[in-house]
Amino acid sequence: RITIEDLDDALDAIKYIAKLEPALQSKFMVDYGKRLCDRHPAEVTRLLINLCGRKVHRKVRPPAEQFVQIFLGKQRWLLEFLRDVVDQVPQESPVVYNMLLELYLTVHLYPKGNSAKGSTSRSRSGSRSGGMTIPDDKKLTKEQRQERDQNHQRAMQLLKSQQACYDVNQALVAAKTLRFEKGMIYLYEKLRLFGEILQFYMETNNYKRVIRTCINHGTSDPDLWVQALKYFAEKPEPCEDEIAQILDHVEDPKINLAPLMVIQILSAHEKKPFSVVKDYVIRILEREQDAREQDEQAIKRFQEETSQMRKEIEDLTTKPTTFMPSRDLMLPAVHFLCKHSYHEQVIGSRECPKCAPDYRSVMEIKEQVKQSASQHEQFFKMLEGSNDGFSVVAEYFGRGILELGDRD
């Protein structure tokens, strides 16, 4: 205290504090760190890096956020302090990481020196972040742009780090406010806010990114395709290529966008020519025609098989059955209506040994179907999770699950 206040020898005071035990170093730096940093920021920064870094045992190591206020007005020294400490020792407080992220995104705006005041803070063009104005790229010098790009790379490494326990929502606010596009998109994806990503690209009229966002995330969120289609449909220009790409993808069964919805969206805008949807309509009609023909063939095949089965049942119940057993079959013999014959001593039951397994499988399936008739929650769960609810209902009707009980 005498060295600092009476003798006004800040450098000797820093050297003296550096020789003390960690607890006393922390105490003196909290009390006099700001005054010492104003005189010798480099020496104070090195002292605090050693104090909060791996050189000090973790049990007596103070948290880095305890000394942040020392660097008031010295953002570049604060960046060096936080960056080096975080590289050495992972911090438990999200405050450190969020502050480091904001410094990465803004430090290029501060002049290289001890003062935080600069010409950029008085710029009239750009966006504002807190009390600072973020200038447009044209207002930055070449050196500032290079430094910004380097720090943006470090910011991305920080966001992707497994050890960085930053507050995601606060980091997202910083990225949006400070126009850090890569970081903002990364955080949107991390939070699964795919609609926000699409909205950002639509606001910036980035057509390629709009399509790419739908391709990357449209399977898990099909509504992205609907938003993109409405976006291009409302544009004054035709946007035929972009609409064609969307129509090519929405035919995917995983997306399952109803053709009627597509037609309604595009037909709501008179300036859109029919050519943008012509090929799509043709493909839909051809696919529906093919499906109808396949269904008709299947219906015909099932009708023939059903008629054949009914005829066999009729013959078995009304006409005598002729058995043609092998000459090696010895009497007494047992003949089954399935046309299989066995010696009486071979038969262990009243079922055909060859057909019994298939019969039991059919009966088990029938019993399972009958039991599932009472599992209403499973039916509604399948109905809710399916892209084609009609198919689920049709399947249940086909199994006979939804049939009414026997009437008196």
What does the model show?
The protein has 408 residues and is mostly helical. It has 18 helices and 4 strands. The strands form 2 sheets. A two-stranded antiparallel ribbon has the order 1-2. Strands 3-4 form a two-stranded antiparallel sheet. Strand 1 and strand 2 form a beta hairpin. Mean pLDDT is 82; it is low at 114-128.
Q: Keywords for this structure?
A:
408 residues, two-stranded antiparallel sheet, 60% helix, 3% strand, two-stranded antiparallel ribbon, 18 helices, mainly alpha
Summarize, please.
Helix content is 60%, strand content 3%.
Major β-sheet, in short? 2 strands, antiparallel
Provide the succession of SSEs. HHHHHHEEHHHHHHHHHEEHHH
Estimated radius of gyration: 38 Å
Tell me what portion of residues adopts beta-strand conformation. Answer: under 5%
Number of strands: 4
Low-confidence stretches: 114-128
Decide which structural class fits the backbone.
mainly alpha
Helix content: 55-70%
End-to-end Cα distance, whole Å, is 103 Å
Which helices and strands occur, and which strands form pairs?
Layout: H1 2-6, H2 10-18, H3 22-39, H4 41-52, H5 75-88, H6 94-106, E1 127-129, E2 132-134, H7 142-160, H8 168-177, H9 181-190, H10 194-203, H11 207-217, H12 223-233, H13 240-250, H14 259-267, H15 275-318, E3 333-335, E4 341-343, H16 356-372, H17 376-385, H18 389-399
Antiparallel strand pairs: 1-2, 3-4
Helix pairs in contact: 2-3, 3-4, 4-5, 5-6, 6-7, 6-8, 7-9, 8-9, 10-11, 10-12, 11-13, 12-13, 13-15, 17-18
